[in-house]
Amino acid sequence: MNSSLQEIKDKIGNNDDFFFQRDYLGEFPVVLMAFKTLIDLPKTKKMLQTNINNPFTINKTLDEFLTGIGEVKEQDSKEAISSIMEGKLIVYLENIPKFVIVEPVSKILNRAIEQPVNENVLQGPLNSFTEDKDTNIGIVRRQMNSDNIQVISLAVGNDQKKSLSLLYLKDLTNIDFVHKLIDQIKKNQDKELNHLQDLSKILGFSPWVAISKYHTTELPLEAVQFLKKGRVILFQDRLPFALVLPSLLWDIFTLENDRNYPLPLTIAIRGVRIIGLLMTLLIPGLYVALVAVNPEVLRIELALSIAQSREGVPYPALVEILMMLVILELILEASIRLPRSIGPTITMVGGIILGQAVVEAKLVSNLLIIILAATTIANSTVVGFQNSLTIRLFKYIIVILASIYGILGIVAGMVLVSAYLAKIKSFGIPYLNLKFAKDGIKSG
Amino acid sequence: MYPENIIASTSEGHWLAILLGVIIHFVVISVYMKGLSFFPNRNIIGIYSSVGKGTALFFLIPVLLYFLMVIIITVRAYSEIITIVFLSNTPLWAIMALLLFISTYIASCGLETIFRTGILLAILFLPLILFIFFVSFQNVDWRYAIPIDGNFQFIKKRDYLESFFAFSGGYLFLGFVQPFFSYNRKNVLIAAAVLIPFFFFSVYIPILTFGQATASTFFLPFVVAVDAININWLMFDRVTMFFIISLIAFVMLFLSLVSWKTIRIIEQFIPSIKPVYMLISLSVIIFLFCLSVPDWKDVEKLFWWNTILRFYVLIAIPISIYLIGIHSKRKNQHENI
Fold it and tell me: Which residues of B touch A (CB under 8 A)?
């Protein structure tokens, strides 16, 4: 037996789903190798057979025939193994030191293109990205249909290969930025890539930045629009969404689907999102500040009614609001964890606790429940779940500052948050790049 | 504080006093920018150093002192105002620590961050300030404006000289930002022009609300005038608070800008220390200084001392830059010939 054949067998032959069979291709003895779990074996064999029996192939030489069924390679067991891992069929010629990588009929291991799960679309195109990277690129090409799209694929990782694809438009994207991005990925090509934190490491972002540096979207419509704004889209294999780089502050407020409505409505919808962001940040802090530190700002009637609603509540406003905010976070977290059939239970129990029982037990004030509800609702208006998480975190800074300094603390918190946002940069492009966004508005 | 000084400096024809200040401001800015335009892509530290070490020391040390004084006075004065207006129970040091902490944080992130934060804050707080300016006309009685004819008696008054703090603080940064930013000279002048009405408003609103005789007795006339606003549909009783806090947001930004400039100057003379450590130690020193200022009288004393430095900065820096600029231009022409 051939040495490189032996090598392949030694390396992956112990797997029970490894398929190793001697066969004849016409009159040549060959070895077929593949993973049964990755390819549809009967269909693939049938395909090979039809290829052989094809009347056009009879008069061809062996070389011509081999190039007809797949990619011919010189003996290189490493490449053969990696092709097998990728789900290809290897046809190994025993007499000649060559093998052929055949594109087999693969088993369907991907889900179909479905409706988006994490984002809802109203009156817009409903398909969404799936786990398969190539399908995603295909969807983008179908959506955009332009010869301007440039796709660059890179493989990352030593032990397990993960492929990344970069998409951009040749004449709209800042080529400097694209080059920086590609260089950065190439420099760290040997690092493992399992999740977005790994990707951040590969791209050289600090892991301690509280804001997601990628804007993620599941919707091809949005992704294409970002391409048109001159952004780069990154697809990671097995991740069912597009990562948009660089991510900017304005992305939190805009969805391309807004533009399917008349312009005044678009502006109004975006205005609502901005109000949502400000409310999430300000309201809990304002409650603490007005109740605990600066009640004199309010009109006397209002101050009295607030004080009345807190009558009998045994602890300071900060403890009260922190406790309820934490419970709220727990509910949010729990409803993600639970299977869909039990999820409503959490909603119900949480609703009873938050809505009625806590107030009646005089543990928190009525007003706080309203504030909490408003905060949670407002929090969910921003685009992109990762952004709403960030805002949820910032809210606590403002609450704590407000409990110490009152209204001054809220302003200080806002200044801090603003400065923090202003500080963030990715590849030299600031997060607060308003001009970038403006260009987007013009072209969009 | 600006209106307080102006109102105290003259009893009639305040517009003349304001106008003179504004004109001086404009002249100074134009001379300064003209001077800077001789040196594209260089900041004033670089310009002075190119002339000689002695010159650099001679001009930059007063600027440095001035900046330090400005930070100390601003921090101390505003924390005093905050305690007076709304945080009467919070100790002064806590407020000063907060102001310094935030401005240090912003300054440590660099100039670009300062400017971008400025844009964000402007979007957030300017509407509020404008709104308050508009509603503050609510109690205005136009007859109080009447003795319109003015004279130049006010120039000799100490209060008037002190009022120049409003002009001298802002424009120096134009000389520092050069390698990082380029700006349009016309836009700067337009921005300065947009500010003019606010100088007038801030003086005239208290006067028109209370009359000269009453207004001159107040400690912070504009704040009192805003305090007198009563809007039925607003659920908040004290609009002043919103005015002050929006101002403070900008004060924090101003502080960070000034401390950034200070660090740039110190860096020129002691390049070995890392700027971040320098910034932190500077804030600690300033904090200690602020703690050692016992009450408002001393703040005013500091303020008066700083006036001398202020005029030095206001006059010497722009003119010297201008002269150096012309000088180097001539030299270049000679070399070219």
Answer: 82, 86-87, 90, 94-95, 98, 102, 105-106, 109, 112-117, 119-121, 124, 235-238, 241, 245-246, 248-249, 252-253
Domain count, chain A: 3
Clarify whether residues A421 and A290 are in a common domain: yes
pLDDT tens digit sequence for A224-246: 888 888 888 888 888 888 888 88
Calculate what percentage of chain A has a pLDDT beyond 70: 94
Contacts of A430 in chain B (CB under 8 A): 112, 116
Q: Measure B85 CA to nearest chain A CA, in Å.
A: 11
CA distances from B49 to B265, B267, B324 (A): 11, 13, 11
Which of A147, A150, A177, A190 lies closest to A166, judged by CA? A150
Task: Give the number of other Cβ atoms within 10 Å of residue B235's Cβ.
Answer: 11
Domain that holds residue A373: 259-439
Q: To which H or E segment does residue B314 belong?
A: helix B296-336
Q: Classify domain B2-336 at the CATH topology level.
A: Amino acid/polyamine transporter I (1.20.1740)
Q: Domain ends where: A186, A215, A247? A: A247
Rounded to the nearest angstrom, the minimum Cα separation between B238 and chain A is: 5
Binding-face residues of A in 295-314 toward B, CB within 8 A: 296-300, 302
Question: Do A270 and A359 reside in the same domain of the chain?
Answer: yes
Helices (H) and strands (E) in chain B, counts: 14, 0
**Domain ranges in chain B?**
2-336
Q: Would A123 be classed as within a structural domain?
A: no
pLDDT in tens, B254-297: 888 888 888 888 877 777 777 778 788 888 888 888 888 777 77
| CA dist., res. B223 & res. B211, Å (int) | 15
Residues A239 and A267 in one domain: no
Last residue of a domain, which of A194, A226, A247? A247
Q: CB atoms < 10 A from the CB of B306, how many?
A: 21
> Do A199 and A277 fall into the same domain?
no
Residues in chain B within 8 Å Cβ distance of A410:
245
Co-location of A288 and A410 in the same domain:
yes
Q: CA nearest B117 in A: which residue?
A: A419
* ipTM summary value: 0.83
pLDDT digits (tens, 9 = 90+) for B180-227: 565 666 777 777 777 777 777 777 777 777 777 676 777 677 777 777
